Amino acid sequence: MTQTMHATQTAQTAHTMQAVTQTGFGGPEVLRLTETARPEPGPAEVLVRIHAAALNPTDVWHRATGGLAGAGAPPVPLGWDLSGTVEAVGIGVTLFAPGDEVFGMPRHPAPAGTHAEYATSPARHLVHKPAALDHVQAAALPLAALTAWQALVDTAGVRPGQRVLVHAAAGGVGHLAVQIAKAKGAYVIGTASAAKHELVRSFGADEVIDYRTTAFEEAVTDIDIVIDTIGGAYGPRSLRTLRPGGIVVSLASPAEAALAAQAEPLGLRAVFMAVEADHAGMREIAALAESGRLRPHIAETFPLAEAAKAHELSASGRTTGKIVLTTEISGI
Questions:
Q1: Domains defined for the chain, CATH in brackets
Q2: Which of the residues 29, 70, 212, 260 has an alpha carbon 20 to 30 A from that of 123?
Q3: Model-level pTM greater than 0.85?
């Protein structure tokens, strides 16, 4: 009888997992760690046993409001970043095999549900994890690094010798944007509080401006590219720093797209950009990480069971770098 019960429990465990869900839209108190069905990979998908998954400001936004249209009613699957091991592959997958270590940002902007022990992903939304990174470091990269890459490289076309201004240069996207811009040969200026200047310089920034004591638009000129992760008044103020033909890439809010109307008569450009799943971009990010030119700064890690604490810390706006969730099955 005992052996039968044990076998039944084992079978149930093999088909279930722990995942962060929510009882409604609201504060961190709506979050729950629940047992739910383990997904199965469909055609061209892989099932990943997750070791670590980053928490991003967009996760906090989705928890609080439901986020993007079509997110649906709770429970909304939370999380996009992941680093882990391929557990199984669906029909037609040729890039990966069970046992491969991978990382990426599946499905964004559709829900991905990576704040769990397992998640499925289209195979081409992932790449092999660089050996130079552990799973926590790898999980911290995809969404934030892809945002920075797509803003700097795909949208702004950064080139060697250009002058790049990165706002919130110690933040999750900002500190990676500094490193990517430097890797592309740019001269990089960052804004950050005085206490974070040494850290921002360690990421490669050539200059750092204390936004609390200095009006950045009066301190810098002839900027080619501004990466704005803050929004609001930062957009119009950033236009004043640009040289003719320069561009502000706003990552803060779709409302910032209205900045384009102010920029055009001045011979400038301003766009709002949303990050997308991107296999080619992830391969470039992996190569930069493998070469040592891209490293995430980890603010703090939390187990899945303490996801609410992680959300509270993220919402405080006091973090430097990235917050990462780890799973009990991670082995790290």
A1: 2-141+296-326 (3.90.180.10), 144-272 (3.40.50.720)
A2: 70
A3: yes
Confidence of residue 110 (pLDDT cuts 50, 70, 90): confident
The residue count for the chain? 332
Are 91 and 84 a contacting pair, CB within 8 Å? Answer: no
Q: Summarize pLDDT for 22-36 with one digit per residue, the tens.
A: 888 888 999 999 999
- Determine phi and psi for 315, rounding to 5 degrees: -70, -20
Q: How many CB atoms lie within 10 A of CB 91?
A: 9
Q: How many angstroms separate the CA atoms of 186 and 188, rounded?
A: 6
Question: Rounded distance, CA 114 to CA 14, Å?
Answer: 18
CA distance linking residue 36 with residue 267, whole number of Å = 54
Provide the pLDDT confidence category of residue 191 given band limits of 50, 70 and 90. very high
Distance CA 196, CA 252 (A): 21
Amino acid found at 222: D
- At 13 the pLDDT is 53
